[in-house]
């Protein structure tokens, strides 16, 4: 069973997402409420309470540093592999890795980013294979994934699972339940021709049980766009398409069908490009009763999705904005997940993460964890694109400190479901 603290955090995330947005990754901040914050263990990046985002921020940090040719300390890698459960999944965090995991509390988002980190690191094929098998076992009958097993799927979790499958060289089109593939699951959340023109190509967080039309969600759209474009972490695509992303074609009388897989990435890119243009080159977060505010995690993931889709020029304005404003998101360099995500954005955009907006993000990130074994070209990792074992079947951010009190102020009438928001998961 989930603890009261975790239920409160999950409820807050769902409220933010249904209210309009949230991040799957938790902020690297101390615990809130009456429960004491869990101390950060040795080997973990970041000093804040790891209870809800330990595996998330560790995985992002290891992925970013490895791509920057930094060889992480054995203790950092060992901490991540030691968090894996016997069935192959990862929880958000467990202070004591000796007891068996609570299967209901295992976390698809943490599992997805952990798989990508271990692929990037190399030499962890057994753990990667077990993680992939866990994702397969916990896929919903509609092809989607939930944050925790047994819950309705959501765009963020489904997109992250697809990222992990791609990193592990497992074709998402072959990973299916009841005849519905991972791509079919992702398509459930993308708005097509039945939506207003300005919403088409965006992703909702979850579908409405009663069929009520839903609006595109910033973080869901940003995070799912990387999967729609066929990408994973770290983003290394250097292909460039001079044309802007192609908006979804909806001739008069077009059927209200799912967005075709072949059009999904471009449609998402077109939606995000339009949102950037309308909002000063960033996405926004709208809390109930509050004015819109910048959504750093959503902006970062959207930039990654655009670069993966071959549209770095459409991502450039958002990358510039993140370089200028990123210090707020990273809390002056103390938030490991945010710092690692900025490193990944800089790398994808072919910017220097050691001089991103005047900040050495690599130095900043390494200072948040154990001293690395090596840095520079001598420590270049195995390529994240190197072939891994082929699959036999075929390939939060800063809002948690608002606490449960915000939920009370909003009211209890929202349908709550589980999602971090982190980044991210963010």
From TrEMBL:
Assigned keywords, A-Z: Membrane, Metal-binding, Signal, Transmembrane, Transmembrane helix
Transmembrane segments: 399-418
Domain of life: Bacteria
UniProt xrefs under Gene3D superfamilies: 1.50.10.20
Signal sequence bounds: 1-27
Region annotation Disordered: where it falls in the sequence: 373-393
Pfam families with a match to the protein in the record: SQHop_cyclase_C
InterPro entries in alphabetical order: SQ_cyclase_C, Terpenoid_cyclase/PrenylTrfase
SUPFAM superfamilies for the chain: Terpenoid cyclases/Protein prenyltransferases
Boundaries of every Squalene cyclase C-terminal domain copy: 54-147
UniProt feature, compositional bias: Low complexity: 373-387
Protein name: Terpene cyclase/mutase family protein
Species assigned in the record: Kitasatospora putterlickiae
């Amino acid at each position: 069973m989930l603890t009261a603290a975790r239920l409160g955090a999950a409820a807050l995330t769902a409220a933010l997402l249904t209210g309009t947005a949230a991040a799957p990754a938790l902020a690297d901040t101390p615990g809130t409420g009456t429960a004491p914050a869990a101390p950060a263990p040795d080997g973990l990046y970041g000093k804040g309470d790891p209870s809800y985002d330990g595996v998330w921020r560790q995985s992002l940090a290891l992925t970013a540093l490895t791509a920057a040719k930094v060889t992480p300390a054995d203790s950092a890698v060992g901490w991540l592999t030691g968090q894996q459960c016997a069935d192959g999944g990862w929880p958000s965090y467990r202070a004591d890795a000796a007891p068996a995991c609570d299967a209901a509390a295992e976390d698809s988002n943490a599992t997805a980013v952990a798989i990508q980190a271990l692929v990037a690191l190399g030499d962890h094929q057994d753990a990667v294979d077990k993680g992939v098998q866990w994702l397969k076992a916990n896929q919903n009958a509609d092809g989607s994934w939930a944050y925790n097993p047994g819950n309705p799927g959501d765009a963020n979790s489904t997109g992250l699972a697809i990222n992990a499958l791609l990193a592990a060289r497992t074709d998402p089109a072959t990973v299916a339940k009841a005849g519905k593939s991972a791509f079919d699951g992702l398509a459930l959340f993308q708005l097509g021709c039945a939506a207003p023109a300005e919403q088409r190509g965006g992703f909702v967080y979850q579908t409405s049980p009663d069929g009520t039309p839903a609006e595109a969600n910033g973080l869901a759209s940003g995070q799912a766009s990387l999967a729609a474009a066929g990408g994973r972490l770290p983003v290394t695509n250097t292909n460039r398409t001079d044309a802007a992303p192609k908006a979804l074609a909806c001739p008069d009388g077009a059927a209200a069908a799912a967005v075709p897989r072949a059009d999904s990435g471009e449609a998402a890119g077109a939606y995000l490009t339009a949102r950037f243009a309308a909002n000063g080159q960033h996405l926004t977060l709208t809390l109930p009763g509050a004015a819109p505010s910048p959504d750093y995690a959503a902006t970062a993931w959207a930039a990654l999705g655009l670069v993966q889709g071959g549209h770095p020029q459409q991502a450039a304005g958002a990358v510039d904005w993140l370089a200028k404003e990123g210090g707020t998101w990273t809390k002056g360099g103390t938030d490991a997940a945010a710092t690692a995500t900025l490193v990944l954005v800089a790398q994808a955009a072919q910017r220097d993460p050691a001089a991103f907006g005047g900040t050495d993000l690599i130095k900043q990130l390494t200072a948040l964890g154990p001293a690395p074994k090596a840095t520079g070209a001598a420590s270049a990792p195995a390529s994240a694109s190197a072939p891994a074992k082929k699959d036999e079947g075929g390939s939060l951010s800063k809002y948690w400190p608002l606490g449960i009190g915000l939920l009370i102020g909003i009211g209890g009438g929202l349908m709550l479901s589980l999602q971090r928001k982190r980044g991210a998961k963010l």
